[in-house]
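COURSE: Structural Biology Practicum
ASSIGNMENT: Worksheet 4, Part C
STUDENT ID: 0417
INSTRUCTIONS: Below are two proteins. For each, the amino acid sequence is given first, followed by its structure token string. Answer the questions at the end about the second protein only.

PROTEIN I
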Amino acid sequence: MNLPASPHLERLWTDLATKRQAALLLDYDGTLAPFQIDPAQARPYPGIESLLNRICGLPNDRLIIVSGRWLNDLRPLLKLSFEPEMWGCHGRERRLSGGQSSFVPLREAATAALAQADDWEDAVLALGGRMERKPGSVAFHWRELSSNRRQALQQELSARFATLTPADELIWHEFDGGVELRGSGADKGQVVRQVLAEMDACGDYCIAYLGDDYTDEDAFTALADRGPGILVRETWRNTAANTWLRPPEGVIAFLTRWLEIRTRQTGTQGMGTLGA
């Protein structure tokens, strides 16, 4: 597949060929893997893991997975020879490639509010929805519901949310297929800002972020003109991203091009295995 003509991508290809270091940030669900009603079945598209393995093996490239998932649920889905850096729970949770982990704690009031929301499960199930508990948040899924049932569930959740702790303790954040209530103080934009600060300290580098959902908009905004923010989606929508790829072909073509350029730039073949 040919990649779309984009001045942002053209600039990236030039930078990848000349910059000493590179950082590639990737959302998981909808970007590297198709959505599944059962999240435990959301394995990467064919060919993705092989490319990620080889990018992980490049000596000066930093591969970072940025997800709304809890990392305990996400890590088993990626079968890589090298475990990349991962950020989970929208940036609240971080695990470095060496295994060191950190977590941004919730304020007490946010914890109490989430405990109240945790009691909504029976009502959510009765309306056909699904509830997902994560450290720092709770998500309610309605992707598989009809329009009428989805609207009824959304109205029920909105009414219940209005009775919770003050709004500054929890963020109501809609995503493609549901809504998540999460403690304030962490989002994907903060991940990008942290990575930019760390890369700035190292000097000569380029960076890109790929994501599909409304939760990735914070990351696109934070990246601004520092590198391409790439929306991965079947159809275009209003977004802070400046480039658009269709999954999975567009993502595979992008990763292949990244790997080809960086392999030439570093004079290596990457240490990952093609068949992994």
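PROTEIN II
(use this one for the questions)
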Amino acid sequence: MWLNQIRTYGHLIKFSHTIFALPFALAAVLLAHRQYPVTWSGLFWIILAMAGARSAAMGFNRLADYKYDKINPRTSNRPHATGQIGKPSLILFISLSSAVLIISAGMLGRLCLILSVPLLLILFFYSFTKRFTAYCHLFLGFAIGLAPLGAWIAITGAIDARILLLTTALMTYIAGFDILYACQDVDFDREAKLFSIPARWGIDSALRISSILHTLTFISLLLIYFAFNLGSIYLAFLSLISLLLILEHKLVQPNHLDKINIAFFHLNSAISVLIFFAVFTDMWIS
């Protein structure tokens, strides 16, 4: 019974997609560890804070999009849309997840605790951006892109301009593949009067914008090499990441959107994990 409920809530928030941002945050922890000691307890609270933040954000997104998810063929089988999870349960889930974030942030220090509430507001606000701007993908990238910065602050207690490169990499990476993912909903978004780059400018233009954003991702990751004085191992991983980004955009074509799920989950998961191992392996061997 409990296992089934866990699976249901995991399906609700697509918990497996946590793998997109978590490796970036852990990479930030590794980079910070070069100057500041990282304890196991600190790492635990960072991971728990991330899980709480993402769960709260996804739960709120499901609540905000409740009426749309019920009538969108792509989302109509989600637990909240089918009635498996009611609105009161969804609100409770959001509240508990938010509490997990705030408590975890408090365990990481006063500054993290203070920043946790504005972070929640930013994450929640994303769910409304698709009502009024086609640039909602960029706001999503910005919101999720705060993960490496948050992890850095949790370890160092301050902001370093260099970590903003990793934040920019994650922001453009998330925004880029969110645009690809939104190509599936062009017709629905236009009918429902929701905003997205594919719905406003068409799939061809959306794919070009996504390519530009992922080029910026690569540039940001390359600049990290210089900013943190990393080695050749990092560059080797970065070469592989660039090939996967190219493959992702080769797979998704205007007339072949059936490959979006492969590009969205499998390739993006691999890219995120490789970014973590690029930093981990380079630092370990060096």
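ANSWER KEY EXCERPT:
Q1: The mean pLDDT is 90.
Q2: The chain has 14 helices and no strands.
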